[in-house]
Amino acid sequence: MSLRVLLVDDGMADRLAVSRALARDPDNQWEVVPVSSAEDALAYLSANAVDAMLLDYHLPGMNGVSLLQKLAELGLPKVPAVVVLTGSGNERVAVDAMKAGAQDYLVKEAFSPERLRRSLRTAVETVQMTRELEERRLRAERAEAAAREALAVRDELFSLATHDLKGPLQIMTLNAQVLRRQIPTAAMTPALETRLGHIVRAAHRMAELIDHFLEVTRGQERPLMRAPLDLLAMVRGKVRELEANASRHHFVLDAPDGRDFTGEWDAHALERVLENLMGNAVKYSAADSTVTVRLMAEEGDGQQFVLLAVTDQGIGIPAADLPFVFERFHRGRNVSRDVSGSGVGLASARRMVELHGGTLAVASVEGQGSTFTVRLPRGIPLAAGPIPSTPGPAPAPGGPEYTAP
Fold first, then answer.
1. Closest Cα to residue 294, out of 356, 251, 244, 346?
2. Where is composition skewed (Pro residues) in this entry (predicted)?
């Protein structure tokens, strides 16, 4: 390795001794530039770059520490490594030199040629490492600033997008409400009334999901809002909605008569879980197939649990995909490209179940169907935290977004 060193010493004999020691370095080739005063050193450094500087403390006029202080004022793009030489072992001089920026300090009468070479090499390596670390820090700061700017742009785009998305929803809601008022009473059949109600509720639900999406993209995640919730009543309501919207499928609700299925849960979070699981069953099942929703009660480990299982007769999940079914952006290899999906719904559903202290599991056979089972503790949660940052997909006329197979 070839290195340039500026030797600042007013003694001719010392300059020759140092030059000979560096010329015999077996590991590095040193280009020695000798000067005899601090003023000459500053003039040279102002116009030339060097890797290191061997600096005699006792110089005529300006001493070595003063030279280092002046050197700092030059604002050089690359400050050289500095080893200070002196004819005495004064500790105060050593401390002042190190504070002024020197990497090492040698007493002339005490060091050997090998010690000199080792000191210079170490000083150069230290400065190079410090310089690299500083460059990395600056790159990291620039990358962080760029990331913050990108996030700001993203948040602005999301705000505009969500605003534009809510506009059509408001039009749908207003038109459905107008139709309710304008259709004559005699012509308003129960089925029509139900469908108009579904439109209004779906539009409101979509608006809530859009607001939630905007919140989580900004990192404004809300905590679970626990309250007594009758899971059976929620399931009944979702089954009725899907029976109206997905009329090509048969739905079966299997729940023991007289059993209590209430617990301290977040209604909005579990509604998203249920929409994902039931919507998946509809989306990936053939027409005239059956979707079964089962509710069961269970006790174990001193706790009471409610189990919710959604079973379909659809395409099933390949065995190779089962270990990854709850990973974000993963979709089964047997899913047609014509079937829409983002691959985030099941990951979000599992996260919300886990925040309740529960579990979400799957059992599936390709070509026969799948069963997703939610196990929720009724009482004190085993885990707590914010609603996950991955927003659940919105319900569509054929059911909510499917994230797996």
1. 251
2. 388-398
Distance, first Cα to last Cα, the chain? 58
Which domain covers residue 301, as residue numbers? 223-400
* pLDDT band (50, 70, 90) for residue 382: very low
Report yes or no on whether pTM surpasses 0.70: no
Residue 247 forms part of a structural domain: yes
Phi and psi at 260, nearest 5°, equal -95, 130
- DSSP for 164-175, written as a single string: HHHHHHHHHHHH
Nearest by Cα to 158 from 222, 223, 204, 212? 212
Rounded to the nearest 5 percent, the helix, strand and coil shares of the chain are: 45, 20, 30
CA pair distance 206, 395, nearest whole angstrom? 7
CATH classification of the domain holding 301? 3.30.565.10
Residue 294's CB is within 10 A of a number of other CB atoms, namely: 17
CA-nearest of 47, 44, 49 to 8 is 44
User: Quick one: DSSP state of residue 43?
Assistant: H
The two beta strands, 359-365 and 369-377, are: antiparallel
Query: What tokens were used for 80?
Result: 């050289």
Average pLDDT over residues 311-315: 93
Q: Tokens standing for 272?
A: 């998203």
Can you give the pLDDT at residue 385?
Answer: 46
- How far apart, in Å, are the Cα atoms of 405 and each of 156, 268, 396? 33, 24, 18
Predicted confidence (pLDDT) per residue in 88-138, tens digit = 667 778 788 888 888 988 888 778 889 999 999 999 999 889 889 888 999
Out of 111, 131, 153, a domain closes at 111
Same-domain pairing of 107 and 233: no
Considering its fold, how many domains does the chain have in total? 2
Show which of 52, 86, 111 is a domain's final residue.
Answer: 111
Look up residue 266 and give its amino acid: D
Name residue 76's amino acid.
L
